[in-house]
Write a structure and sequence with these properties.
The chain has helices at residues 7-12, 20-34, 49-59, 73-79. By secondary structure, the chain is mainly α.
């Protein structure tokens, strides 16, 4: 897919900004439908922690990972990136990577 190079092209493409939680939920549902392993390399939490994380993401809830050292907290967090889109439009040169359709920074 060719990326839009102007705001007009972005609008014409039908792009609609979504929150991070909505984006993660959409991508999680897509991976579940494909039958992919959601957290490869995480062993031993398939019936306890991982279903709770999936439910939290599907519900749009925040969650905190608590546990002793060596319980895969960081490994799980690093894998959450796979539920984000590879590319999100932003205004070029903006310090806060503003949404082109709804900028909040005075310079943009």
């Amino acid at each position: 897919m060719k990326r839009p190079e102007s705001i007009k092209a972005l609008r014409d493409s039908g792009y609609q900004p979504v929150t991070v939680k909505q984006e993660m939920r959409r991508n999680l549902v897509s991976l579940i439908e494909k039958g992919e392993n959601l957290f490869p390399g995480i062993v031993g939490y398939e019936k306890t922690v991982l279903p709770q994380i999936e439910n939290a993401m599907l519900s749009g809830h925040d969650f905190i990972l608590l546990g002793l050292r060596g319980q895969a907290k960081t490994r799980i967090l690093r894998q959450l990136v796979r539920f984000l889109d590879e590319w999100v439009p932003a205004i070029e040169g903006c310090e806060v990577n503003d949404d082109p359709l709804n900028p909040i920074c005075p310079a943009c």
